[in-house]
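Researcher: Here's my situation. A collaborator sent me these components and asked whether they could plausibly form a single complex. I don't have experimental data yet, so a predicted model of the whole assembly would be a useful starting point for our discussion.
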Amino acid sequence: MRITNGMMINNTISHINLNKLNVDKYSTQQSTEKKIQKPSDDPIIAVRALRFRSQLSELTQYLDKNIPDAKSWLELTEEALENVSKSLSEMQTYLNQASNDTNGLENRQAIVKTLTQYREQIYKDSNSDYGGRRIFSGYKTDIDMTFANADKTVKYHIREDFKPEDFDTISKIFNGVDITKVQLHVPGEPDPALNQSAFPNDKTDVHRLRLAYDELMTEDNAGGAVVTPTVEVVTGTDANGNPTYENITARGYNLQIVSARADGTYRDQNDAEVNPYAPGEDDVYFLTDTGEMIFGDNAYIGLKEEKLSVSYAKTGFEKGDLRPEHYFNCTRYTTNDNGTTYAEDIVFESYQQDINYTVNFNQTLKVNSEGKNLFGHDVIRDLEDMINAVEYLDVIADKITKIGKMQSDSAYADDVSQANLASMKEAADKEYAMQEDIVQKLFEKSITLYKNHQTTIDEEVADVGSRYKRLQLNEARLGSQKTSLEKLKSNNEDVDLPETIIKLSAASMVYDASLSAASKIVTKSLLDYLS
Amino acid sequence: MPSTFFGLTIASSGLFASNIALNTTAHNIANIETEGYSRQQANMTAADPLRVYSSYGMVGSGVTVTDVKQVRDSYYDYKYWNNNAITGEYSSKSYYLDQIEDLYYSEMTEAGFTAYYGNFCNALNSLAATPSQMPIRNQVIQAGQTLAEYYNNIAQNLETYQNEANAQMKIVVDRVNTIAENVASLNHQISVLEVNGGTANDLRDKRNVLVDELSSLVGVKVKETLSPTGSVQYTLRINNQNLVYGDKWNTLTLRAKESTEIRHETDVQGLYEISWSNGVSFDVYNENLGGELRGYVDIRDGDNLEQPLYPVDETGKPIGQAVDYKGVPYYMAETNEFLAQYTREFNTIHMNGKDLNDKSTEFIPFFTIQDKSVDDMKKAIVAEGKAADVDAVTGAQIIDYISENITAKNICINQELILDNSKLATATTVKDGVEMPDLATQFDALRKKKTFNGGTAEDAMQSLVTVSSIDASAAKNMYANHSSIGEAITNQRLSVMGVDKEEEALDLVKYQHAYELASKVITVMNELYDKLINQTGV
């Protein structure tokens, strides 16, 4: 083949160019430490690099954002619940003391006061928040579990559901000793007979359902329609899965709405005076002041196996009351600007509200514990029962003191009055004993309730702990996954530096060689040797 | 018996021949670095012998220079031109594909789809856990904006490439016209010169240089035929049509397409239509086109044979011709198709919810169209006759409208959300609490949802990376292969036509000696005549 100078120069240039390309390739690899600079350099490496990147980005989200966030949330929950558990255990110690026979009235009053303080502490803990979000409020993280301040205007129409086991039996003393009705001898008058009505009846056991709130409204028309307390039986569910109800009046029972009047009497909705704790056989008394429903014997027998659903209206919340929206299906009504009319605000529905964090690929973890399962109304209402019972004990003690004073009063020195007073004293002592018994039983019952309550809390703490453990395991797993992913990513796209350095020096050597070859080719020709 | 002075004649023919050969060598040396120059050779032959009617019969009569001819093999020219057309095509393709693949893949700088989409998905994941948190809501909106802007950028760049390719077509056409004119004028000169015999070597070289250049712009076919009159007819064809025929030439003209002639909705305005100046149509989609022009056409119009739904002509057929290449319209269509589906899925979730104030978001899309409010869309839907009046338009119709009209160019995040992030819907209702995450969870689940031809959104976009990088890689390889084939052919051509220094140096020495010897012959003859005329018999 004929070789011309042009060909040689062409070939030399193209070889130098090839060598330059190699030097450039390896020097770029060395300075970027990446095997490819463009996807077309190697589409397979490029697409694999994309996959590793997207997996890493997802993993980093779980490892660096979600898990630490979930951990703090769970830590906070655990701390709050442990405080609650501690409070409950302290409360039980005090209740044990209080249920002891030897405790005097003053001691019991002090204990009730201490219990009230612990309760406040519990509800403070229930409002714990994490970065502005209440941790126990389900999805309503912007709403405290309890009222931070007394709210006298907001109204709630509440539907509260009961299970058969919610029925309890309480002892009540009817017609306590009334010292104003004692018949004393007045000189010149005939001897009075003993007034039996001034003496207490025996205590009676009544069947009760305790509502979540006291001081309920007898009726309310916020939102238009008049709402009065209604008791219904849950009969089943309709096609949409919503419950169906039947009013207890359709079953032949009467619902009497009983409230206290200014004169101290209790009257029903027809203004007839009634004894709130002695309903007729077929009657159900709805006591608006104490938030209780007292069932007559027939009514109790007929309804005790049923699931009952009670609708009522409530306004005037005290500081520390639990907010109904966390517990019940209810409608909130707030006043308009001028405070005159009420408008429907929000209809709340109660269901399980889990806050989930993604903690691994396709794995979520529930972080929240719902306050509605942890902080029940029972704690408040029990305490109120106790306060009322102890207060009543105080009233009786007061009566006894007064009778004692009257006995030693010269005005009642005559035999008849003394006999009357003695009989009344006996009745009052009996009443005191009965009430003391009631109080003691109440304390004993509360110990069980508080113990159960503490068990619930402790179980939740254990659950939080196990979720925390799961989180830690996931964290460890993700950590090692991240390491291996990063290794894979690096293997895929990063250069092996020593190898590249060797290749680069090899390439630059070849480049040098090709340059020196070129210098020889272009400088010589036959003319150099012709003379 | 030949003339006594016959030897002198023979010697002078040698002197002339050497002189011509020396001149030719000088010409070759002078043009040693001239592009496209083919070396010339003075062809010599022994002169016709004379019958001298003597016992030894015939005597040689010296040398004749038959012609000075270029040494060139047109077979290599054809190979060179064919290869050059392919090299040209892939050089322009790889130039653009190199840029297109960068659009879809900028992962080394953490500025590509995976990075932006990953951020968006991570923000949505945080949102599913903490939908009420304002910083998280902001993060979602901002990550969404970045993603939308990434697409705007893709569309803008793709349009730029389409515009550039279109402008390049004009440059190519102008150059083709110039070359055609020059070739025709050379043809004229060549035929004038060659009519008296001989070859116009240097003009032919010039013509070949022009065709070399033309062959990288557009595929060429050259034919030289002898006409009945004996003259040589030179025909230069591109795209199977005559560009130059003898001393006549045709030119190409460009015309911006009317809006009714635009094939793809995404095409930029003012794309050129090429035709011959004499009105004959020039089919740029013909497979014989070749060259850089073919590369620009494929990049500008390549839609992978996919028929666009819009626009259509009056018979309902798509306008224009499908092009079997993945050019700008293909990437536009794929990207827009992806966005249509993704935004449909996203908006369907978003517009089914309530904002933080429990107001319905039925008419608040998340992804929407730039400079088009929901009210505008309602009016457009009414104008299409799909609803009785603007109040009758449903959210589902808005979702359809956005999905049908959204493109990478016009995608954006709803301004309402940017101004007030509480309007971002994260739940079907917030009456149960602001932390209710049912919609946010659905957003989060989109990442894993396989609705894009059986893959996730990420898979769909990654397949575009794969397609663009494989095509770019193929174009690069084709270009590299044909460049090296081109080098080989160039060398083969040079092997025949190239001027070699050594060869010319030797020729110089060789013909110098021949000349000197011929002169010596004359000296000898001179001495002979001197002897014969002046000294013999005196």
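Model: Some features of this prediction you could bring to your collaborator: The two ends of chain B are 24 Å apart (CA to CA). Chain B touches chain A through 65 residues (CB under 8 Å).
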